[in-house]
Amino acid sequence: MFIINCPYCGERDQTEFSSGGEAHIVRPKQPTELSDDEWAEFLFMRKNIKGIQFERWNHSHGCRKWFNVVRDTSNDKIHAVYKMGEKPPVNK
Amino acid sequence: MKNKYSIFSLIKNAFSSHENWQRAWRDPEPKKEYDAIIVGGGGHGLATAYYLAKKHKMTNIAVVEKGWIGGGNTGRNTTIIRSNYLWDASAGLYDHALKIWEGLSQELNYNIMFSQRGVMNLAHNLQDVRDLKRRTHANRLNGIDAVWLNTDEVKKFCPIINTSPDIRYPVLGGTLQKRAGTARHDAVAWGYARGADQLGVDIIQNCEVKGIKRDGDQVIGIETSKGYIKSKKIGVVAAGHSSVIANMAGLKLPLESKPLQALVSEPVKPIIDTVVMSNAVHAYVSQSDKGELVIGAGTDSYVSYTQKGSHNIVEETLRAILELYPIFSRMKMLRQWGGIVDICPDASPIISKTQVKGLYFNCGWGTGGFKATPGSGDLFAHTIANDEPHKLNAAFNINRFVSGDLVDEHGAAAVAH
After folding, report:
1. B345 CB near a chain A CB, below 8 Å?
2. pLDDT tens digits in sequence order for chain B, 417 residues long
3. Can you list the domains of chain A with their CATH numbers?
4. How far apart (Å, rounded) are the C-alpha atoms in residues B381 and B383?
5. A38 touches chain B (CB under 8 A)
6. Three-state DSSP class for residue B100
7. Among B315, B94, B345, B292, which residue's Cα sits nearest to residue B184?
8. B389 touches chain A (CB under 8 A)
9. Widest CA span in chain B
10. CA of B311: which chain A residue's CA is closest?
11. Taking a contact as any Cβ pair under 8 Å apart, which residues of chain A between 58 and 87 contact chain B?
C-alpha cells in the first residue's frame, strides 16, 4: 500500500494502478529463431528482486497509460517514476 | 524414541508442576561439513530433513534457518488442508500429503491437532457451478473424495451461510471434501523439528544464508552468518525468498514474491465447524480451537517482501465475508498479518533438481503450501537422496517452463488456494 506519482496525473493511491511486473524485458526481435530455453527465459524467468526493482505500472483506473517505476521491494519505497521509452533516472 | 510423549509422561510431569520437560530439540553449533543441508526451517524444510533421516538414513544433515523455526509462512497460513485439485499430477501430490497427514500425529508422537472437519468450496455463478462439478468428477476419478452440494445442502452443512438468492453473489451450490480440514501449523513445525532432531539432524536457527558456493556446476557449500558450511547437497526451501537464494547461486526462477494476508477475530464460542472457501468473492473462513475466526485474504498484485499487505485487500475479503455470514457483522478483528508467497506462473510448485549439481529447489507453493507440508518433505527428501524425482513430483520439475508442460492449477484452484 503506497502512493504512486503517475507522470500524467500526479499522486494517486496504489489501488488505482495495476502492476505490470518487471520492466525492460524486451520482446525478442525474431521470435521464430528462439530456442525453447530462450522462450522460457523471456516468458517465465523473473529477477524477483528483494531491493531496488525496475517495474511497469498501468494507471488502470485513471489515464490508463503505462509507465515505469523504480521501487524498493523490501520496503515499498518508490525512488523514481519515468515514462515509457525514457532512460531510467537511476542506474539499472 | 527418547522422551516419548504419553499420558504417563504427562502425569509424571504434572507432579513437578511441568517444570522438568526437556527441550524438544537441541540448539547445536554448525559442523564444518554435512552430507546435506536444507536451507529454510519451515514446515517443508523440517519435513524434508525428517524424511531424509528417517527414510533415506541420511543423518549427518542440517537445517539452517535465518530466524526461528516455523516463524515464516508455516506460522502465517490459515492451516487449511485439502487435496481436491483438478489435474492428475496435483491430485497425486496433494493426496499423497493428505494421506500422510492422517497418521502424522502418531508417527511424530506429537499432537498436530489434525482435524478432518471438511472443506467446502462455494459456487456463485454458472461458470463456478460448471467448474466445481467438473472438478468433483475429476477428483473422484483420481480416488479423492468429493461431493457436489446444492444450495439447500450447503445451508444444511453450514447453517450460518446466507443462501438468500437476493445477495450480490448468491450461493448456487458447492463442493465438499470431507477428508479435508485443518491442523495446528506451529505444531507441524515443532513435531517435525523434534522428530528430525531425535534422528540426529542439526537444526541451526538464527543462521542466515549469505551465499552459495559453486565449483563449476557443482555446489560445494554455503556462506552463512555462522560461517562457511561445506556440503555437496543443498536443498533450498525458502518460500518467498527462494529467488533471493537462487540469485546467490546464479540462477533465475519463474517466481514472483507477493504478500498474502490473513487475519483472526476475537475468540467466540463454536459457530462454524468446517472450512468454507469461496473463490469468486475471495473469502475463506474457519474457526480455530481457541475460538477465533481464521480468515484468509488475497495477495497484493505487485512484488513485495514487506510481510504487510494492503488494506484494500482485507476490505474486499471482509466485504464478502459479511455478505455470506451476516452473523459476523459485529465481530472485531484482533490481528492481521502478511507472509511472502512465491507464485509460479502455473500456480503449481517446483520440487526439482536444477542445472547446478547438488542444488535442489522446493518452491513456488504460492498461496497454498501448508496443506502439502508432509508430502512435499517426503518427495523432496526422495529427490535429494536419489538425485532423481519421485514419480509423484516428476511433473513438478523446473524444466516444465522450457518444455511447456505446465500444471495449470490457476483455473482449478483459483485464488483461494
Report:
1. yes
2. 567 999 999 999 999 999 999 999 999 999 999 999 999 999 999 999 999 999 999 999 999 999 999 999 999 999 999 999 999 999 999 999 999 999 999 999 999 999 999 999 999 999 999 999 999 999 999 999 999 999 999 999 999 999 999 999 999 999 999 999 999 999 999 999 999 999 999 999 999 999 999 999 999 999 999 999 999 999 999 999 999 999 999 999 999 999 999 999 999 999 999 999 998 888 899 999 999 999 999 999 999 999 999 999 999 999 999 999 999 999 999 999 999 999 999 999 999 999 999 999 999 999 999 999 999 999 999 999 999 999 999 999 999 999 999 999 875 554 444
3. 3-83 (3.30.2270.10)
4. 5
5. no
6. helix
7. B292
8. no
9. 66
10. A1
11. 73-76
**Quick check: B304 contacting A, CB < 8 Å?**
yes
Q: What's the full length of chain A, in residues?
A: 92
pTM value is 0.96
Q: Name every chain A residue with its beta carbon within 8 A of the beta carbon of B308.
A: 1
CB nearest B256 (choices: A14, A43, A46): A46
Asked whether the beta carbons of B132 and B147 are under 8 A apart, the reply is no
CA B265, CA B228: separation in Å to the nearest integer? 44
B345:A41 CB<8 A: no
Cα atoms found within 13 Å of the Cα of residue B108, Cβ hemisphere only: 28
Which of A18, A36, A74 is facing B301, going by the closest CB pair?
A18
